[in-house]
Amino acid sequence: MKQAKKKAFNYELDFKKTDFRKNPELYRIGKGEQGVLLVEPYKSEILPHWRFKTPEIAQESSEHIYGLFLDYLRQNDFVGADMARKFLQMGYTRSRRYANHRTGQKYKGPVPDDKKGQSGAHGRDQLPLDPDPVKAESARIFKEKWDEAKENETYKQLMAEFRSKYES
């Protein structure tokens, strides 16, 4: 079966005024963590629980966010479930960044003005690794929950239905 072409994440929307629970047709899954800090009301529901400073905090955070993920699935709310999945993914990626670079800074120098808001080095040199095993453990904890969410059969079914309905 041929997979439907995925629509790109739309950064042109007025995120401050858009309620994606009421307007799921406006949501785009995008790549990775796209929209994780934009899509309401989910950002406001999930962000207060997103923490990774220590493995204990990461464990509590990832379990709470995974619980929200399951709640959204029970409500057949794919957008909410996908946003919770993105927060779990972001818990992993941010923990990994701090696991590799204690300051959280990956590159030397400021981001050029015309590149702000975009990911990537933009010609800057990468700073040397300065490993933090505590953050590495936090990352492992988030990765476990992120993988669990990605492989959830109900999530995969709702994603297929969402793509069929809104992204094809």
TrEMBL record:
It comes from the Bacteria. Residues 99-134 are annotated as: Disordered. Residues 111-134 have a biased composition (Basic and acidic residues). InterPro entries: DUF4385 (IPR025494). This is DUF4385 domain-containing protein. It comes from Pontibacter lucknowensis.
